[in-house]
């Protein structure tokens, strides 16, 4: 069952660069980020994700506003020691389809013949023939892929790594909250108001969507990332624990047999409280839901970071410093 904050329920091509260079600037940027950061996409695969280079820094993790659940405790400081890149958007249907075409991969939902899906009676049930191709509602290629398990997400990252020659993976839970907060300590990245117009999530009587939307349909956070709140829950690489004990820093390999893996971000089905930056849940690795997807991380080298800073400084200089 999906576990949530309310208990048991369940070579690179640099495209756009801007900002300030230097280690001191990186530290300040982590506290006061400004969009856009370094944005790039690897040359291969051709339909690979757009990535945002995230600086190292410190942040406070957990239920800072004291309006969450026990599994968001204890509140503690986390240091992100190295820069890394993360997907600007959740992995889309189109991107996942490219992976399937290239590899012939068959998802857990397709193997099992079903996906855990919402129906109009406000219940979640296993429905036959539901999978990432048919999650129970219409999707374009720009919607986040859903009905994919943690194992499916891991297979996608392994393919990306092989196709690009770089190291792709799922984010650790700590990395995920770091980028979702983007320098904020509020409940949501936009503030402490549960604004139903800022994310695709269930809003009670105003709940109109009842499905995913195109990625990027709502304003990004200060790191320039879209849909870290709502649209689809996102798998992470960290095992789920009832409270923080250090597992939030781990990224498990695909061969690891964990009872539950952390999901973050809330979804089109869940109320705004589940879309808070601190909200967390867990699900077993082979499970698949029509409101769970993922985004990817790419490890970066010091040389890559230096290259990005050089190109960024050149662009700033060419623009007259604006």
Tell me what the structure shows:
The chain has 322 residues and is of the alpha+beta class. The protein has a single domain, classed as Alpha-Beta Complex (paralog of FGE (formylglycine-generating enzyme)), CATH 3.90.1580.10. Helices cover 20% and strands 21% of the residues. It is built from six helices and 16 strands. The chain has helices spanning 23-31, 93-103, 108-112, 150-164, 173-181, 302-318, and strands at 2-4, 7-9, 12-16, 38-42, 51-54, 57-61, 76-80, 84-87, 114-118, 124-128, 168-169, 233-239, 261-264, 280-283, 292-294, 297-299. It has a six-stranded antiparallel beta sheet with strand order 3-4-5-8-16-11. β4 and β5 form a beta hairpin. The chain starts with a strand and ends with a helix. The relative contact order is 0.20.
Q: Secondary-structure element sequence?
A: EEEHEEEEEHHEEHEHEEEEEH
Envelope shape? globular
What's the overall average pLDDT, rounded?
86
Count of individual domains: 1
Which class in CATH terms?
Alpha Beta
Compute the number of helices.
6
Rg estimate, integer Å: 19 Å
Compact summary:
The protein is an alpha+beta fold and 322 residues long.
């Amino acid at each position: 069952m999906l576990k949530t904050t309310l208990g048991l329920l369940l070579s690179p091509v640099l495209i756009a660069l801007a900002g300030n260079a230097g280690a001191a600037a990186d530290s300040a940027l982590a506290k006061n980020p400004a969009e856009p950061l370094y944005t790039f996409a690897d040359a291969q695969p051709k339909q690979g994700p757009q990535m945002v280079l995230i600086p190292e820094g410190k942040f406070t993790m957990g239920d800072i506003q004291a309006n969450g659940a026990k599994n968001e405790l204890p509140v503690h400081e986390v240091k992100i020691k190295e820069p890394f890149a993360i997907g600007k958007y959740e992995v889309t249907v189109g991107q996942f389809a490219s992976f399937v075409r290239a590899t012939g991969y068959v998802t857990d939902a397709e193997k099992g013949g079903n996906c855990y899906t919402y129906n109009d009676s406000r219940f979640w049930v296993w429905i036959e023939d539901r999978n990432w191709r048919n999650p129970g509602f219409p999707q374009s290629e720009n919607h986040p892929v859903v009905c994919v398990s943690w194992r499916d997400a891991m297979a996608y990252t392994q393919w990306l790594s092989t196709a690009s020659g770089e190291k792709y993976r799922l984010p650790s839970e700590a990395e995920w909250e770091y980028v979702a907060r983007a320098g904020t300590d509020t409940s949501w990245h936009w503030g402490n108001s549960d604004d139903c117009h800022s994310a695709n999530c269930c809003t009670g009587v105003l709940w109109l969507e009842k499905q995913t939307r195109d990625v990027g349909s709502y304003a990004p956070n200060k790191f320039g990332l879209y849909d870290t709140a709502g649209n689809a829950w996102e798998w992470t690489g960290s095992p789920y624990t009832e409270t923080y004990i250090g597992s939030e820093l781990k990224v498990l390999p695909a061969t690891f047999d964990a009872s539950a893996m952390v999901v973050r971000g809330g979804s089109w089905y869940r109320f705004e409280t589940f879309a808070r930056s601190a909200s967390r849940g867990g699900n077993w690795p082979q499970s698949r839901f029509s409101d769970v997807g993922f985004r990817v991380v790419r490890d970066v080298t010091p040389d890559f970071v230096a290259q990005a800073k050089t190109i960024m400084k050149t662009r700033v200089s060419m623009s007259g410093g604006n």
